[in-house]
Amino acid sequence: MKTPVLRFFHWFGLGSSPLVLLTVTVLSLSPSSGSAGLISWLPFGDKGAHALAYAALGFCMFCAVAARGETWHPGAAIWTNRWRIGAVAVLLIAIGLTIELVQPRFGRSMEMLDLVADGIGGLLGIAVGILALTLGTYWEERRGG
After folding, report:
1. 3-state SS of 90-104?
2. pTM of the prediction?
3. Any idea where the domains of the chain sit in the sequence?
4. Is the distance from CB of 81 to CB of 89 less than 8 angstroms?
5. Is residue 69 within 8 Å of 77, Cβ to Cβ?
6. Most exposed residue of 66, 107, 122, 137, measured as fewest CB within 10 angstroms of its CB?
7. Mind listing the pLDDT tens digit of every residue in the chain (145 residues)?
8. With contact defined as beta carbons under 8 Å apart, do 53 and 121 qualify?
9. 3-class SS at 74?
């Protein structure tokens, strides 16, 4: 039976993943001159924006597909979700690569460092998702849920 924590993560991920993906796609394909002010406060500028966007997308996508292990122990979320983690990481790289390949058709430049930032951000988002799932599961078991 699914636990309330896992159910929350699952529905949050299912609802937010398409919205975050749409936002990332629109911002990635729109002219960059309008977004310069939005990303000027981020560390590493444009690359920081790529990492942040894909971290959000990676977190949401991981939440949508995460599964809880039989019992809680450190590393259970990673072991139980090892194939899901790999699939989400590959999908994030594929999304980033597709957007980078399409950008020149929208007057944007294609940069391989953007793809690297996308991958790093996506992995960071998955890691935060694993941490959130682990802490949520631990908290739920501690309170007797």
Report:
1. HHHHHHHHHHHHHHH
2. 0.87
3. 4-142
4. no
5. yes
6. 107
7. 356 778 888 899 999 999 999 999 998 888 766 555 555 555 667 788 899 999 999 999 999 998 876 666 767 788 888 899 999 999 999 999 999 999 999 888 888 999 999 999 999 999 999 999 888 888 877 776 5
8. yes
9. coil
